[in-house]
Recover the amino acids of this structure.
C-alpha cells in the first residue's frame, strides 16, 4: 500500500467514529439527555386550581402536578415561573421559555406553539345553591330579571354585560362563592373547577349545583422556538398517557375536588 492510500485509510478510520458520534448527538435520545442536564423552563399563569402560584398547602395545582410527574419520570428538572397570562404566553412564544404550562388552541397561536394531547377542559357555566329550586338556564340571555354574580374583571363579566345584564361583581372567586352560598344572588357565572375547588376546600362540595354552558380543551403548549420542541411534546404525550392508564391523573384531580374531574 503506497503512502497516499495509507493516509486515506487512516483518515477514513478517524472520520467514521466522528460521523457516528455526530449522528448520535442529533438523535432524540440525546435531546432527552440534554434536558436531564438543562431542564425545562416553563412560563405559567396563576389559575387555581390548575396552576397555583402561592399554594397554602402542598397543592401546587393539578396541571403543575401532572407536569412535574411526567417530566420527573423522564428525569427532566422543571423551572416554573409565574406571570400574568399574556406575558406568560408571549414569553414562551418568543422562546424565552420552552413552554407555557397550559393554553387553548387558536389559529393565531398555531404558528408559534406545538400543542400536546388534551390536558383537560375549562368549563364555564352557572352555579346555584343545591338547596333551592332555581330553574336551569339555556343561555346567559335567559338571565334577564335574575340576580347573577360574576367576578369583576373576568372576560365572563364582559359577556354578561354584552348580553345586556347588570351583574353583581364580587372582587374574587372566594367572595363570589361566599355570596352565592349566602343567597346574595341566584346564579354565579364562573369557571367550574375554580368554584368546585373552593367548595371542596370549604367542606361543602355538595352545596352547589353546576350547569355547564361550554367546555374548552386546553393543552401543554411548547414553543416552536425550542430546538427540541417535538421531542418535548412527544415526551409529555407519552408520559401523560401512562399517567392516565395508571389512574394517576384521577388521583391528582381527586385531591382538588374530592372526585375525578375532566
Amino acid at each position: 500500500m503506497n503512502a497516499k492510500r495509507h493516509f486515506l485509510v487512516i483518515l477514513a478510520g478517524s472520520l467514521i467514529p466522528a460521523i457516528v458520534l455526530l449522528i448520535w448527538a442529533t438523535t432524540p435520545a440525546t435531546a432527552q439527555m440534554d434536558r436531564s442536564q438543562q431542564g425545562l423552563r416553563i412560563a405559567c399563569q396563576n389559575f387555581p386550581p390548575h396552576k397555583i402560584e402561592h399554594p397554602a398547602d402542598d397543592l401546587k395545582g393539578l396541571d403543575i402536578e401532572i407536569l412535574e410527574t411526567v417530566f420527573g419520570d423522564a428525569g427532566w428538572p422543571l423551572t416554573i415561573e409565574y406571570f400574568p397570562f399574556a406575558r406568560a404566553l408571549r414569553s414562551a412564544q418568543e422562546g424565552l421559555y420552552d413552554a407555557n404550562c397550559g393554553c387553548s388552541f387558536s389559529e393565531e397561536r398555531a404558528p408559534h406553539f406545538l400543542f400536546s394531547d388534551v390536558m383537560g377542559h375549562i368549563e364555564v357555566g352557572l352555579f346555584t345553591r343545591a338547596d333551592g329550586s332555581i330553574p336551569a338556564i339555556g343561555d346567559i340571555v335567559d338571565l334577564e330579571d335574575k340576580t347573577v354574580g360574576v367576578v369583576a374583571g373576568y372576560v365572563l363579566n364582559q359577556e354578561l354585560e354584552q348580553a345586556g345584564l347588570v351583574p353583581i361583581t364580587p372582587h374574587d372567586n372566594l367572595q363570589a362563592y361566599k355570596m352565592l352560598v349566602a343567597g346574595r344572588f341566584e346564579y354565579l357565572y364562573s369557571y367550574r373547577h375554580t368554584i368546585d375547588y373552593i367548595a371542596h376546600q370549604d367542606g361543602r362540595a355538595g352545596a352547589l349545583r353546576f350547569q355547564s354552558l361550554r367546555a374548552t380543551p386546553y393543552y401543554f403548549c411548547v414553543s416552536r422556538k425550542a430546538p427540541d420542541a417535538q421531542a418535548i411534546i412527544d415526551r409529555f404525550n407519552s408520559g401523560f398517557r401512562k399517567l392516565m392508564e395508571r389512574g394517576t391523573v384521577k388521583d391528582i384531580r381527586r385531591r382538588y375536588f374530592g372526585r375525578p374531574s375532566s
Summary: Residues 170 and 176 are 5 Å apart (CA to CA). The longest strand covers residues 113-129. The domain at 123-216 is CATH 3.40.190.10 (D-Maltodextrin-Binding Protein; domain 2). The chain is about 40% helix and 20% strand.
